[in-house]
Amino acid sequence: QVKVVESGGGLVQPGGSLTLSCTASGFTLELDYYAIGWFRQAPGKRREAVGCNNKMSGVEYYADSVKGRFTIARDNARNKVYLQLNNLKPDDTGVYYCATADSGYGCYDSRSVSSDYDHWGQGTQVTVSS
């Protein structure tokens, strides 16, 4: 059974950092085959793409609002994908979701398409506040 679980959220002051983890299990192929997307949803707002990584195609995308501050990294040995969040701002507050898509889908040069992703985690809350 495919399972995607996020962890690592919490309360952090502006300017601080967090590392979110996404653990993927039950997949038929190695994690590198799948595109990984990170999304977030703030209260009262629509879900938005934060960034994505497609190891097979070499494509990586970050939203303009997080470019230079957020980084996606993979650890295939542990079936984990990380989202490093640096220099956090109050506008970064929201529930962060990890999702997977078959290689070739979901993660493109200029966007991450949420409808392409097949498996989603339950989300982890990030709150940036002083």
Biggest sheet details: 7 strands, mixed
Beta fraction: over 45%
* Category from helices, strands and their pairing: mainly beta
Write down the oligomeric state: single chain
The helix count comes to 0
Please, could you describe this protein's structure?
Helices cover 0% and strands 48% of the residues. Strand 5 (48-54) and strand 6 (59-62) form a beta hairpin. Strands 2, 4, 5, 6, 9, 10 and 11 form a seven-stranded mixed sheet that branches. It has no helices and eleven strands. It has 130 residues and is mainly beta.
Blueprint of the fold:
Layout (H helix, E strand, L loop, with lengths): L2 E5 L2 E3 L5 E8 L8 E8 L6 E7 L4 E4 L7 E6 L4 E6 L8 E9 L16 E2 L3 E5 L2
Parallel strand pairs: 2-11
Antiparallel strand pairs: 1-3, 3-8, 4-5, 4-9, 5-6, 7-8, 9-10, 9-11
